[in-house]
C-alpha cells in the first residue's frame, strides 16, 4: 500500500528526479568566464572540483593529479584541490613544481 508508493517515489527521485533537478540547477548557475559548454544532450557542463585527500604521498601525487587533469573535461571548468592531512614530506613543493597554480594544496 502506502509503503510501496513511498518506496516508488523514493526510487524515482534517486534515479530520475535527481538528474532532472541537477539539469534545472545548471540552467541557472553562472559559468566561469562566460564560457558555456554543452554535452551531446544539450545540457551545459558545470564547474567541478576534484578533491584528493593525502597523507605523505609526495611520490604518488604527480601521477594522481595527471590522471585527473587528463580527463576529457574542459580545463576551465575543472578545479583540483589536494587536502593534506598533516603530511611531513615535501608534498606541497612537488605539487607546485609540477603544476604551479593549476592545483591548490590546503592543510
Strand order of the largest sheet: 1-2-3
Distance between the termini: 51 Å
| Average pLDDT number | 82
* Cα-atom radius of gyration: 19 Å
Overall strand count: 3
Strand content: 15-25%
Q: Please tally the helical runs, counting DSSP H or I stretches of 4 or more residues.
A: 3
For the biggest sheet, the summary is: 3 strands, parallel
Overall, the morphology is elongated
Folded structure, characterized:
There is one protein chain. α2 links the parallel β1 (48-54) and β2. α2 packs parallel to α3. Strands 1-2-3 form a three-stranded parallel β-sheet. The protein is built from three helices and three strands. It is α/β, with parallel strands linked by helices and 107 residues long. The protein is elongated, with a radius of gyration of 19 Å.
Would you spell out the secondary-structure blueprint of this structure?
Blueprint: H1 2-27, E1 48-54, H2 58-69, E2 78-84, H3 91-99, E3 103-106
Parallel strand pairs: 1-2, 2-3
Helix pairs in contact: 2-3
Supply database-style keywords:
single chain, about 110 residues, alpha/beta, about 45% helix, about 15% strand, elongated
Summarize the entry for a quick read.
The chain has 107 residues and is α/β, with parallel strands linked by helices.
